[in-house]
Amino acid sequence: MLPNSRFPLLIYRGGVPGGGEQAVLGRFRANNWLNNWRYPGVYTYPHFHSTTHECLGVAAGWMEVRVFGRDGTRLRVDAGDVIVMPAGVSHEMVGQSDDIQMVGGYPDGRDWDNMQDDHITEDIRRAAAKRIMMLPIPSRDPVTGNPMQEWIEAPSSVDADLNDFRDGLDAV
User: Fold this and answer.
1) 22, 43, 54, 163: which is deepest, by most CB within 10 A?
2) Sign of the CA dihedral with 114 first, then 68, 81, and 145 last
């Protein structure tokens, strides 16, 4: 039931060397990843966003996050690491240090929604997948400030053979 993404999830180890709330926040803002938040981790239930991509920067401590659903991959990120999460990729915090502090942001300050894996119906999945497929590639990478080459070079929805999937989203 999870839409996922044709774009790769990106992990920058030491993307903001040493971390620090102001350093991570400053890097994201300088690269136009706005609508920022600060929080001791991320939600502890699987969820994804269908209205925007998201970047997660570890300002302090460490966090273990599970991506791609309940049976997905577990990743540990430490202070200074940044995850660039494509819209549609499920994520949840499954472990953390006592001092975990995260900073998040969204390209061009987009608003986010909170699609909880446990509450997805077929109709909700279809609508979310359609929104995700219409999102633009962000103009700048939140860590490097460069064009998002890994996403630009990802197969288009046509090359990824997603036309039938896209057409099926409107079927009732």
Assistant:
1) 54
2) negative
Instruction: Answer yes or no: are the C-beta atoms of 64 and 96 closer than 8 Å.
Output: yes
State both tokens at 55: 């970047």
For residues 132 and 172, what is the distance between their CA atoms, to the nearest angstrom?
A: 19
What pLDDT sits at residue 167? 74
Contacting residues for 103 by C-beta, under 8 A, at least 6 apart: 21, 24, 25, 28, 36, 37, 38, 56, 57, 59
Q: In terms of Cα–Cα distance, which of 168, 44, 34, 166 is closest to 111? A: 34
Q: Distance (Å, rounded) from C-alpha 142 to C-alpha 137?
A: 12
In the predicted model, is pLDDT for residue 1 greater than 70? no
Average pLDDT on 23-51 reads 97
